[in-house]
Amino acid sequence: MENVLKEIFKAEDFESLYRSIVDNSADFIYICDFDGNAIYLNRAAREYFRQKGIDWRKFNLLSIIHPDDIPIARESLKVEREEKQGGNLYVVRVKIDDEYRYYQINSMVIYRDGEPFAVQGIARDVGDLYRSQQELKERSRELRLLNRLSDFVMNNLGEPDKIISKAIDYVHHFLNCCAGAIYRVDWMGNSATAVKRYGFTKKLFGQIEQIKFGVNSSWFRELMDKSVLLIKNPARADFPHIDVLQRAGYSNFLLALAAHNKIPYAIILVASREKIELSSDKMRAFKAMIKQIGTGIALSTTHYELVNSRDSLRMANQLWEGTFDVVKDAIIISDRDGNIIRANRSTARILGIENKELVGKNVFEYALNWCTKCEEIFPKVLATGESYDFEVRLPSSGRHLLVTISPIYRGTDIDKVLLVVKDVTELRRMWEELAQTQKLESIGFLASGISHNFNNVLMSIMGNLYQLESALGDHISPVVKEILNSIENAVDDASETIKQLLLFARAGEFKRQKFDTSTLLKEIEFLRKAFPSNIKINFHILTDNP
After folding, report:
1. Residue 546 in domain
2. Reading across the β-sheet that carries 400-410, which strands appear in turn?
3. Residue range of the domain that includes 414
4. pTM, to two decimals
């Protein structure tokens, strides 16, 4: 291992610089072979393994990566070695303090004699950021599914079978697991109608189908065993009801009952061979979806259910409005002609105009004050049906805004247009700071290489000076002695300048201390040789006033 490290850190100055940067980093920085065996760890990583009582010198880094993510890490090592890529960026789950956290790995190959022989990487904890991004994506996906399901229900009110089949399809995509439904339960006739999607069989994919079976069948009773009291006594249940059922062959069952006026008519069955973890937000959205399904069937069944379903639609609309107004980005909805229909509360904060004042105005007229490109992009959205992103600068405040213009469909036709305006000023500032930091790092690497060569030249000059002084011995004249001293001082000044350059490039802490300015002024003496004889330098220093 020591021989490998010597190959990596060949230059003494480079080793000092590199180790200083690496050991002061809070990220885990490592060097490993292509099998994942650790060769070098920085201070933060070594300290972690020390606290865990692990000898990192005998440790394989792949052993702390989540089993499902090991292929990603191995593939990265393989690609870097075989394709000789300059760098690789990927995210894996790493076991830290007995839990898996998301780490962003930035790795690159180290070469020796033109051949790859090790991998250097930086592992940064991005768990919180990754979860936030995933949560935001998941909320957006859920909202899109809810809106699409709502549109489908409204466009197919007279076809309950079609609605329940489509609803199960959406439940499947919403939870990424098997889904089915039982509805039109006829307790007197001892029968029921059912539809299934992707499941309750060994097949992962299959056509949606309807089946009939007796309610006394073992399969039906296996599912209904715990919920039969709720079905016969709906007043005791809070609908939509969601329960967890442990069943043989499945590690988890979710059973949801949709009802109107406390009368159950649709039972949504969700099966998963793995444990389903639902956050409070996802559970709320799932309940809203179940309620939408129930509402659609009710509207297709009787006029009584049609009247009562209006409350469910109103609640779903309130959920949408609440989500609409709490979003931190400015959201503006207009018709196809650009007339603004709605704007959320964040519009006032980002664009400086109250959302109520925007309603009724035209997007093109209003956007001339801050987004002239909107008039160009708007027709493209209507023509292509695609979303467009672009960045603008708000003249009034100088803040940078990311504008997204997307179509809103009603069925297969574009009915409205959505404008989302996100304030990215802070994000741009962080990117600029990151770019500046990378520039300083580049200067550091450049300075280390230059200083190595420059120091060799300076050492050669100093060596020749010493030999010259030794050769002259006692025959050296005062003038020559003065010249040699000036050269030696210039070499010392150059060496000090290199040290200051390296200190600046490392972005380390500067040591401030008092110094005698007279010493600095005396160094000007060597400049006499650089000026013509008709230019003289005179200065007077008070020795008792440093």
Report:
1. no
2. 340-343, 330-335, 413-423, 400-410, 388-393
3. 329-423
4. 0.35
